[in-house]
Amino acid sequence: MQDSRRPSAETRGSLQMSLLIPPRHPRLISARPVVKFQRPCFDPTRPPHRRSQTKTTQTMSKRALRLAALLLAAVAVAATPAAVAARVGPPLAGGWSPIKDVSDPHIQELGGWAVAEHARLANDGLRFGEVTGGEQQVVAGMNYKLVLDATDADGAVGAYGAFVYEQAWTNTRELMSFAPASR
């Protein structure tokens, strides 16, 4: 008599085949059909699904364009003549900028030194008057183009241009050029 809780051999075989459970008895191996689970695999002829990637790429492209436009607008505003004129601070390295206060004692002392150095080298009796204008350039130190008034040996006052290089931390000064200036 068969146990009602236990399925018959026939039912067991079909149950095992439907659940893909390997049979316990060697006789049922040959009767079991071969069923393979087919997994999705890479198909080189089929284009990949990129819907979400395309949206992400488009969103990133829009953001990049907005950022570029914003940066371009900021540069345009910063480069206006009013913005350039309003900048306050030390002169930019490499660029010539006007000397703001030519009455500064250091600038006047540089002018006097330039005239004295020229007079020592040229022995022409030139005497310093005052610095009337000039430009400065930041390098490894400072370059100065000074416009100054000086009196020659005959007592005539004239304008001169002096190009002076100064490096304050090494106490270096050089008179690069000195010549009469045209007004």
TrEMBL record:
- One Pfam assignment: SQAPI
Q: Which InterPro entries match?
A: Cystatin, Cystatin_dom, Cystatin_sf, Prot_inh_cystat_CS
- Look up the signal peptide feature and give its range: none
CDD domains for the chain = CY
**Source superkingdom:** Eukaryota
Q: Does the keyword Aminoacyl-tRNA synthetase apply?
A: no
The Cystatin domain extends over 91-181
A GO MF label: cysteine-type endopeptidase inhibitor activity
Q: Does the keyword RNA-binding apply?
A: no
Keyword annotations = Protease inhibitor, Thiol protease inhibitor
Region Disordered: list its residue ranges: 40-59
Family statement drawn from the similarity comment of this UniProt entry? Belongs to the cystatin family. Phytocystatin subfamily.
The protein's name? Cystatin domain-containing protein
